[in-house]
Structure formats: structure tokens, C-alpha cells
Amino acid sequence: MKRTIVALGSALAALALAKGASSGLSKGEDVTPFHPNHFAGPLAGTTNCFPCTFQNRPQVQVWVNGDRPENVAKIAERLDAAMKANGKAEFKALVVFVGEGEKAEKAKEAGLALVKKEGLKNVAMATIAPSNEAVKAYKINVSPDVKNTVIVYRNWKVQDKMVNLSADAAGLKALDGAIASVVK
Predict the structure, then answer these.
(1) What's the total number of domains in the chain?
(2) How far is residue 182's CA from residue 171's CA, in Å, rounded to a whole number?
(3) Domain range spanning residue 135?
(4) Under a CB-based contact definition with an 8 Å cutoff, are residues 123 and 94 in contact?
(5) How far, in Å, CA of 15 to CA of 69, rounded?
(6) Which residue of 9, 114, 142, 162 shows the fewest CB atoms closer than 10 Å?
(7) Which residues of 43-72 are buried (b: 16+ CB within 10 A; e: fewer)?
(8) Is the full-model pTM beyond 0.90?
(9) Alpha carbons 104 and 126: distance in angstroms, whole number
(10) What is the domain-level CATH number for residue 58?
(11) pLDDT per position as a tens digit, 31-71
(12) Residue 163 included in any domain
């Protein structure tokens, strides 16, 4: 009987994690330097630190961990448009794909195709290995249940975060609101 209860408790805990998965730095925490492999955007061809390069400007990082390409595309398009619309505030955005080897290469190919197809000119894109210390420092959950983690910050301090952001009308409205809160 005890084993059944323990097994049931473990199953319920796993289900709760899947529904309300935790990932990413919390509001008020500081972002830290990290060096992904940039393949698109202003830092393409480098491993320059995104937060270090853009310092206290309002920024968004979207950490992608196996999300559907269509969802990532809609988020990237929204970020690119937000960068254009908030040029005066010098808003910056990065989509970083978590993966290595073949997974990283496929993410890079898909990202470059997206940049070309949608004419994205502003949003940065990069890859990073799941074993990179930044994944741990940013508290990115790389379980298959977590498809993306969005971190919104200014002056190195997290203002908002979203986990498993769906690029539907409600999700994009939430992203727009988070961006608006850091560009004011």
C-alpha cells in the first residue's frame, strides 16, 4: 500500500511539473554573462556576451528547448517587430537554441531559414550546449516538457518571465506587455 501511495505521489508530482513547469531566472534576479554561438543578428559569427554587449538596455532572451518551429517563428517575428518599434529605447532580443551536435546544427539551419523567409533583420539568434554553465546559471529547465523560457530584463534585472509561451493571440499579448514594461 505504501509503495502505491509513493508511486501515485511521484506520478502526481511529475504531472504538476509538466503543467506548471519551472524554468528560468525569477523576477528580481540578475542575468549574468554567457557566450553562445551567434549565427544571426548583430553578433553573428561571434560568441560575444549578449547582456554584456547591450548592457542596461531593455532585453528579452528566449531559450528554446525543442519548441515547434512555427511557435518559435511567431515569437521571433514579434520580437523583431518590437525591436523596430522600440528602437528609441534600444530594445534588444535574442533567441537561443539549447542543443549540441546535430540538434544545434538543425536549429541553426532552421533559424537561418526563418531569418531569410521572414526578413528578420533585428533579432539575434544563437545556439548553446545544454552542458554550458549558462544553462544552469539561468536556471533553464531542459526537460522535454519545457519548450521555451522567456526572460525579460533591463539593467541586468529580470522583470518578467514566461515558460512555454504559446505564440497565439493571448501569448503574444503577454509578450508585448512584458516588453512594454521594460521599454518605458
Answers:
(1) 1
(2) 17
(3) 21-183
(4) yes
(5) 25
(6) 9
(7) beeeebbbbebbeebbbbbbbbbbbeeebb
(8) no
(9) 9
(10) 3.40.30.10
(11) 999 999 999 999 999 999 999 999 999 999 999 999 999 99
(12) yes
